[in-house]
Each structure stands twice: as C-alpha cells, then as structure tokens.
Design a protein that fits this description.
The protein has 315 residues and is of the alpha+beta class. The protein has helices spanning 2-27, 36-50, 84-93, 125-130, 134-176, 190-246, 252-281, 294-314; strands spanning 31-32, 64-69, 74-77, 101-107, 110-116, 121-122. The strands form 2 sheets. A 4-stranded antiparallel sheet has the order 3-2-5-4, with helices on both faces. Helix 5 runs parallel beside helix 6.
Length: 315
C-alpha cells in the first residue's frame, strides 16, 4: 500500500510540476498560451474590418492570412498554397478541417481569412520554426518523468524489501546449518513476520523430532552396548574352555575342531568389540580397514567353511 501511495503521489506531483513549469514559462513570456492568437485576433478584428487596406502589420502574431475577392481570387497574404482552398471554403461555406483554426473577417468586396492554432507557442520565432512545440516538449518530459518515477521508487522499495526479508533468509540459513537455538527478529512487514512465525514453528517441531530421535538412538545404542557386553561373558567362557581342551590329549580331528572354535570365538570377539566402539563413538567412520593378501583371505574363508561343513554334517 505504501508503494502504491508513493507511486500515485509521485505521478500527481509530476503533473502538478509540469503545469506549474508551463505556467511559469507563460508568465515570464517565454511561451505564448494556447489561446494567445485567438485573443490577438479579437483585439485586431475592428482594425482589420475598418481599415482602408489590410497590411501585414495589422495581422496578429502567430497567424497566417489570405485575402480573397468576392469571386475567390487571392488578392494577398502569406498563407501557404496548400491551405488556400480550405481557407476559401471557410470564407464561403464556413467549413474547415485539419489541425488549424480559421477566422473570417468579411470586408467590403473581400474576405480576410486568418489561420491560427490553439496550442502553446514559443515567443522566439527561431524556436517556433526549428524546434518541436512546447506541448510536445512537455509530453516528452512527462513520459521521461513517469519512467523515472516507476524505476527509482521500484529500486528503492526493492532494496528495502530485500533488507526486511533478510531475517527470513537468516532463519533459513540457521536451519540449513543445523542451528536450532537461534532467535528470530521481526522484519516490519506482516507477511514476512507470518513467514518467520511459520519458520519458528517448523524449527521447534524439527528440534523436538531430532531430540526424540536422539533419545531413541541413545537408548538403542545403550541396549546394543549392554547386549554386546552380555555376549562377551559367555564367549569368554567358551574360548577359555576351548583353550583348556586344547591343552589335553586330543585326536587330530578334535584339535582341528578346537582350532575352529578358537578362530570363531576370536572373530566374534572382534565383531563385538567393534560394535561396542561404534555404539560409544556414534561414528561408524572410526572403523579401520586393513589390506590383506588375497590368498590369505581365501584360506581363511576356506577354513571357516570347512568348520561350518563339519558342524552341519554332525547334525
């Protein structure tokens, strides 16, 4: 609404300034008013009507004239040839067309036809001849002023709206950077403040959701850590008994079985320890990777497969 009022006020001000400028130029005599020629014709009417002979000195400024006989023959004047027929039609029938106005003074045995325009004119004859009319100049200035009024306030309001929209952009950046503890500030525009309020509600909902998810993950990790510790106890018992059995007199097959048990428990203990470390650190990137020989890798898989095959066969 403020933008609309500024635009309307500026346009009204432009019109007022244009009219005041035109009035000032007319007052100081730089420009003749639109009806100047008509006024001068009325002042010179009686002089022309009763003169013994019409001369150029009697013709008012800003007027062209032509003198016709009763039969339509041109007797004198300075009216351009292309307008003579129109002037005669005005003298004889009272009809005219075009951008010019005509005044007929009927004298004894002749007609004096004056041609003039109802538009502002320059006082200087040089400007009237070589420059566009004051009315056109004012129109061009009005168009330029209107364009300036549209562009300049639009740029100013655009900058102001961008500044007032900054709190909204800051709030979005804070959420993007996962900072949910920031404090929002008002923008001064109702629509932007409504948007900030909606962002605050979204932030609170997101924070509650993340806190709930964090608590759920924490409980899950605690349960996994407790379970991993619980697995370590019976696994340690199995490994310890397997080691004790390996110290007794066993057959070759029994020794191989004990080896499978010890290797399996070692692998399980490694997995359990990694699980405990991950649940404590909450960061799976802590897991380290090592380079192994491909031959050793397949040998290890083969041994595990043989142990698994024997256990299945016995079942």
């Amino acid at each position: 609404m403020r933008y609309v009022l500024v635009m309307l006020g500026s346009l009204v001000g432009l019109v007022i300034v244009a009219y005041l400028l035109l009035y000032l130029l007319i007052s100081v005599g730089c420009i003749y008013p639109a009806n100047y020629a008509e006024q001068k014709i009325n002042e010179a009417y009686d002089t022309i009507l009763h003169a013994d002979k019409v001369t150029a000195e009697m013709i008012p400024a800003l007027c062209n004239y032509v003198i016709f006989s009763e039969k339509g023959e041109e007797i004198g004047g300075n009216l351009p040839e292309q307008y003579e027929q129109i002037a005669w039609n005005v003298a004889k029938y009272g009809t005219a067309s075009g951008k010019y106005f005509y005044k007929v003074i009927s004298r004894e045995n002749e007609y004096v036809v004056l041609q003039y325009r109802l538009t502002p004119q320059y006082h200087s004859a040089f400007l009237r001849e070589h420059f566009i009319g004051p009315q056109n100049v004012m129109s061009i200035m009005a168009v330029i002023g209107a364009i300036a009024i549209i562009i300049i306030p639009s740029i100013c309001f655009g900058k102001r709206i961008k500044k007032q929209m900054q709190p909204v952009l800051d709030a979005i950046d804070q959420i993007k950077n996962q900072n949910l503890e920031y404090e929002t500030s008002g923008s001064g525009i109702k629509e932007f403040d409504d948007c900030l309020s909606a962002i605050d509600d979204m932030r609170d909902a997101l924070r509650e959701s993340l806190e709930k998810q964090w608590k759920t993950e924490q409980e899950k990790n605690q349960q996994m850590s407790a379970l991993a510790h619980d697995i370590k106890t019976p696994l340690t018992i199995v490994r310890g008994n397997a080691e004790l059995l390996s110290e007794t007199e066993l057959t070759t097959e029994q020794k191989n079985n004990i080896t499978y048990v010890l290797n399996g428990t070692t692998q399980i203990q490694s997995y359990v320890q990694q699980l405990i470390d991950v649940t404590k650190s909450w960061n799976c990137s802590d897991v380290t990777y090592t380079t192994v020989m491909l031959e050793d890798f397949f040998t290890d898989i083969k041994e595990q497969a043989l142990g698994w095959q024997k256990s299945i066969t016995r079942k």
